[in-house]
Amino acid sequence: MKKKISEKDNLLDYVPVKVEKIETYINDNGLVDIIIPRDGWFDSLIRKIARTPDKKVISLDSLGSGVWNAIDNERNLYDISKIIKNKFGADADPLYDRLSSFIRLLSNNEFIKLNRVDE
Q1: Which residues 6+ apart lie within 8 Å of 16 measured at CB?
Q2: Is 94 or 55 the better-scoring residue by pLDDT?
Q3: How far apart are CA 59 and CA 7, in angstroms?
Q4: What span, in angstroms and rounded, lies between the C-alpha atoms of 45 and 15?
Q5: pLDDT digit string (tens) for 9-41?
Q6: Per residue, what are the HEC states of 11-79?
Q7: Least buried of 13, 29, 43, 85, by fewest C-beta within 10 Å?
């Protein structure tokens, strides 16, 4: 069972780890596109009926791309926040609110796993 991170947990103590099945590439604008395979049985059925693509592409903005590129499966979120602050400055503010929202979104969509530093 997936351990839920509570609102009381300090996300800065977690290390984001990219899920292996998620593919990415850098698009023509230099930003990250996340490729999500639609390979479940329900997805296969919908693809046959509605002729939808076998992959979904999510294009990240510059801040999201910066965060995604900073995730190296070893840095904790505090270290990543320092990288983002150095790269984007005031454009990233409010940094911790935006970073925690984005990381929770990535985690909830199973693009990353979050591991506690002490694990």
Answers
A1: 71, 73, 77, 80, 103, 106, 107, 112, 113, 114
A2: 94
A3: 27
A4: 36
A5: 788 889 999 999 889 999 999 999 999 877 777
A6: HHHEEEEECCCCEEEECCCCCEEEEEECCCHHHHHHHHHHCCCCEEEEECCHHHHHHHHHCCCCCCHHH
A7: 29
CA angle 88, 110, 19 (to 5 degrees): 80
Instruction: Report how far residue 19's alpha carbon sits from residue 69's, in angstroms, rounded to the nearest whole number.
Output: 14
Residue 1: half-sphere exposure toward Cβ, Cα within 13 Å: 3
Backbone φ and ψ of 99, nearest 5°: -65, -45
| CB 32 within 8 Å of CB 102 | no
- Spatial separation of the C-alpha atoms in residues 59 and 45, rounded to whole Å: 25
Between helices 62-70 and 77-88, what is the axis angle to 10°? Answer: 140
Half-sphere exposure of 35 (CA within 13 A, CB side): 12
- For residue 57, list its beta bridge partners: 35
